[in-house]
Amino acid sequence: MSRETYTVEALAHVVGGRREPTDDYWGGTRAIIRIDDPRYTADATKGLADFSHLEVVFRFHLTDPADLHLGARRPRDHPAWPEVGTFGHRNMRRLNWLGVSRCRLITVDGLDLHVEDLDAVDGTPVLDIKPWFAEMGPRGPQRQPSWPGEMLTDYYAPHRDTT
Hints:
Elements: E1 12-15, E2 30-35, E3 53-59, E4 98-109, E5 112-116, E6 125-131, H1 146-151
């Protein structure tokens, strides 16, 4: 199979919220997803306010391209956690630098979507926005190893100044 490439365009950008990516304390972080592609009008967000959550696809635009890890490594380089391959992580060290986040939709103001708990920083290019349908969540029993729960204990804890 040959390698395929695609061109994607940002249709929006994150405005406000966090300026620097960090590993934890995204809880309560508020930002605006500003749909800035001129092809969209306010009709594009019609009915969106009826949903409580969004699923947002974005590009990790601040990641150093030299920091690509396609093999196995320990999450956050923590010695107690097992080495897992690139597809066992949800971090930015990925071939296409894509992130997916589910966030709470606070309000819709034309082409500005006010959100909370979006773990993308100010200026992040947004590639797609979808309303969260409960029916699209996992079906059947879920399982995961213990390390993600340990690692993400403070991920959505209330924001605190980490500087």
